[in-house]
Design brief:
Length: 138
C-alpha cells in the first residue's frame, strides 16, 4: 500500500483532527508522527496524555491492520508514561504485532521524540471485526 494513498478511513476523523501523519506504511510496519502544537497541551504546557494514548492506539491498530483483512476495535489499552513533550516537539510512534488470532490481536507500541528519547510505551488488545461492519454479530 502506498503511503501517499492510504485508505480514506485511515486518513479521516479524529487522528486527522489531532494532526497525526502516517510517514511510513508497509505490511507489519507503520510509523506515525505528530508535531506538537499549543492545542495539544495540558494545563502545564506539556503534551496531553490523551494525545499520546490516541497516537499509540492509532499506530498499533494500523500496524495490526496492515497484516489482516479485518476491521478492528480496541478492547484494552495499557500505557506507561515515561517523559513529557512540549510545544514545538515532534513525536514519533511505532508498533509491533505480538499476536493475531481468530478474534483478537495484540500489539505493543512506543512514542519517542525527534531525538529518540522514549516518552511512552503501551500494549493493546484489539477485537477483529468483519470487514463489513453490518455483518458483525451482536
Amino acid at each position: 500500500m502506498s503511503i501517499t494513498e492510504p485508505p480514506k478511513r485511515i486518513q479521516a476523523g479524529f487522528e486527522r483532527h489531532l494532526g497525526i501523519q502516517i510517514t511510513h506504511r508497509e505490511e507489519g510496519h507503520v510509523v506515525v508522527e505528530l508535531p506538537i502544537t499549543s492545542e495539544l497541551l495540558n494545563a502545564d504546557n506539556l503534551l496531553h496524555g490523551g494525545v499520546i494514548a490516541s497516537l499509540l492506539d492509532h499506530v498499533m491498530g494500523l500496524t495490526i491492520r496492515s497484516q489482516t483483512e479485518y476491521s478492528l476495535v480496541t478492547v484494552n489499552l495499557n500505557i506507561h508514561y515515561l517523559a513529557s513533550a512540549k510545544e514545538g516537539d515532534l513525536v514519533v510512534g511505532t508498533a509491533k504485532i505480538r499476536h493475531i488470532g481468530k478474534s483478537l490481536a495484540t500489539g505493543e507500541g512506543e512514542v519517542r521524540n525527534s531525538t529518540g528519547k522514549l516518552l511512552a510505551i503501551a500494549s493493546a488488545t484489539f477485537k477483529l471485526l468483519s470487514t463489513n461492519l453490518n455483518e458483525v454479530k451482536k
